[in-house]
Amino acid sequence: MDPEGRQLISAEDQGKLLRFLGIDDPHQWRQSWISQLINLELEAWHPNSSADWLWSLGIPLLSLAREYQGRKTLVGLSALPGCGKSSLGHWLETAAHNLGLSLQVVSIDDFYFPAEQLERSMQGNPWGVPRALPGSHDLKLLQCTLEDWRNGLPVQCPRFDKALRNGRGDRSGWRTCDADLLVLEGWFVGCPAGYEPTMQEEGLNPPLTRSEMAYRRKIEEILQRYQPIWHQLDQLWQLRATDHQSPQLWKRQQEDAMRTARGSSLNGSALDGFIRMILSAIPSETIQNIPADVVFDVDPNRDLTRIRLNRAS
Q1: Three-state DSSP class for 71?
Q2: Which end of the chain is more exposed for a tag (fewer CB within 10 A), N or C?
Q3: Low-confidence residues in the chain, pLDDT < 50
Q4: Distance of CA 204 to CAs 91, 207, 279, Å?
Q5: Distance of alpha carbon 155 from alpha carbon 115, whole angstroms
Q6: pLDDT in the model for residue 312
Q7: Any idea what the Cα angle at residue 57 is, between residues 236 and 307, rounded to 5°?
């Protein structure tokens, strides 16, 4: 990534974000980080990533970690699959380590049930997906882990490897999570319950089937169980797709990359079902309008184009 490369985020939008973070002098802030660029592992970014990912998202999150050193802070990061949030997470952890900042990124997907229980939890869904739906996560383990972490106790978070079992995935070890700033990422993190699950949507082709509508009701009920997790979030940031159809492209590219790197991934009808699930399992209006504090618009090319704040900065 070229740190001075193309940027679409306006200075006004970035200034609002920095004020939200308690930063009053954007120029001084930028200069202080320019002096640290050697420590930021810029080569870890995809070479086509715009500089907005660095200056309007990555470094602001590192600034948050610097601000909250010594205080347990939980930030949610919500984004549709394939948009780049996992790559962002890997970079954040590496850059934070190099800078001596206490930050870790945990995916809600790491808290999927072990394989056998995961298979049972996903039985009967009309998309045939092996994971990812609300109801596939061990919420008791996640809740206890977050509570113990908040109280300063040493906790172990599971790891989930999506390449195992021919792309169906399984747990693969554990890691210690003890950072002051914990980022919890996932495609429906922060998603509320209480919406109308059976409404048809423009642009969804083919339209919702009866079985999809029926399962939507089930998902809306299951999402009630996730709300205590969302209530633990100190802040919620969202990467919001400007085109809700973008996951069709992003997910295929993500699976192609995993197949190249690991030799296993979702493909064929399994991948088609996963994409259909992302587009139809939860109403797009609900996903697009989760009650996030900070919202970044992401276009189909994965460029950040706008920042919106949903509470006073």
Answers
A1: coil
A2: C
A3: 312-313
A4: 34, 5, 8
A5: 22
A6: 47
A7: 70
Q: Per residue in 159-173, pLDDT tens?
A: 999 888 888 889 999
Collapsed DSSP state (helix, strand, coil) of residue 73? strand
pLDDT confidence of residue 255:
57
pLDDT in the model for residue 313:
40
pLDDT given for residue 119 in this prediction: 96
Contacts of 303 (CB under 8 A, 6+ apart): 8, 50, 52
* Residue among 134, 181, 138, 191 nearest 160 (CA): 138
What letter represents residue 201's amino acid?
Answer: E
Tell me, rounded to whole angstroms, the distance of Cα 271 from its chain centroid. Answer: 19
Measure the CA dihedral 258/181/302/231, to 10°: 100
Q: Which residues pair with 295 in a beta bridge?
A: 238, 308
- Which residues, 6 or more positions from 294, have their beta carbon under 8 angstroms from its beta carbon? 17, 20, 235, 236, 237, 238, 307, 308, 309, 310
Q: Sign of the CA dihedral 42, 44, 48, 52? A: negative
Where b means 16+ CB within 10 Å and e means fewer, 176-187 reads: ebebbbbbbbbb
What stretches of the chain show up as alpha helix (H) in DSSP?
A: 11-20, 26-34, 51-52, 59-67, 85-99, 115-122, 139-150, 164-167, 210-223, 227-230, 246-262, 268-280, 284-288
Beta bridge partners of 235: 75
Number of Cβ atoms within 10 Å of the Cβ of 267: 14
